[in-house]
């Protein structure tokens, strides 16, 4: 993994020319995205470059909008977990130039979205981490996408013991959505770099 991250850092810095650079770190749940992003962020800071990190799961919607909607559970997870169109318009379309962006941040304890303003320096390397980043609505906004490829069995073992007990939820909600993404979007084929994790 360390050698792959070194290669990724070089690829990012080779593409950086003082303009805002938008990087996507894509991968399915528990593939290791946050760990890789933390490493990238630290290394970029050491290079004295501005870096701004967004976690797409910070911007999910309230439970009533993504559970018990009448749709299949996998559809709820893939299509309703985030307001995909809103994020395209108010986040992705503004990322290239906007000095600041106003975004809803999900508060899980209160089950509500709280609006916050994020300031983005001009010549910043922007890193976005999350699942399903290469979906049709968002893919065009990235300058470079790395996909973390990790077997489902390995990812499932990284879940807590109590979470692993909810195997039926994984089968009907999460895994079906993942299979849809892999089949329809083909993220491994479309990523600029693949890292096995």
From TrEMBL:
- Its domain of life reads Bacteria
| Keyword Ion transport belongs to the record | no
Q: Which InterPro entries match?
A: P-loop_NTPase, PRK/URK
Say yes or no: keyword Coiled coil present. Answer: no
Q: Provide the alphabetized UniProt keywords.
A: Kinase, Transferase
Q: Where in this chain does the entry annotate a coiled-coil region?
A: none
In this protein, which residues make up the domain named Phosphoribulokinase/uridine kinase?
A: 22-196
Gene Ontology MF terms in the entry: kinase activity
Q: Which NCBIfam families match?
A: PRK07667.1 (NF005807)
Give the protein name, as stated in the record. Kinase
Species whose genome carries this gene: Alicyclobacillus fastidiosus
């Amino acid at each position: 993994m360390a050698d792959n991250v070194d290669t990724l850092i070089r690829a990012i810095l080779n593409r950086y020319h003082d303009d805002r650079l938008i990087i996507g770190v894509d991968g399915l749940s528990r593939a290791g995205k946050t760990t890789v992003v933390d490493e990238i962020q630290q290394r970029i800071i050491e290079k004295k470059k501005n870096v701004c990190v967004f976690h797409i799961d910070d911007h999910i919607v309230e439970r009533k909008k993504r559970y018990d909607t009448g749709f299949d559970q996998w559809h709820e997870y893939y299509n309703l977990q985030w307001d995909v169109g809103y994020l395209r318009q108010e986040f992705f379309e503004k990322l290239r130039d906007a000095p600041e962006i106003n975004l809803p941040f999900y508060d899980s304890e209160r089950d509500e979205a709280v609006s916050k303003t994020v300031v983005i320096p001009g010549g910043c390397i922007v890193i976005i981490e999350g699942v399903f980043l290469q979906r049709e609505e968002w893919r065009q906004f990235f300058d470079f996408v790395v996909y973390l490829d990790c077997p489902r069995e390995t990812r499932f073992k990284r879940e807590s013991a109590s979470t692993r007990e909810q195997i039926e939820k994984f089968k009907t909600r999460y895994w079906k959505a993942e299979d849809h993404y892999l089949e329809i979007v083909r993220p491994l084929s479309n990523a600029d770099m693949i890292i096995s994790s």
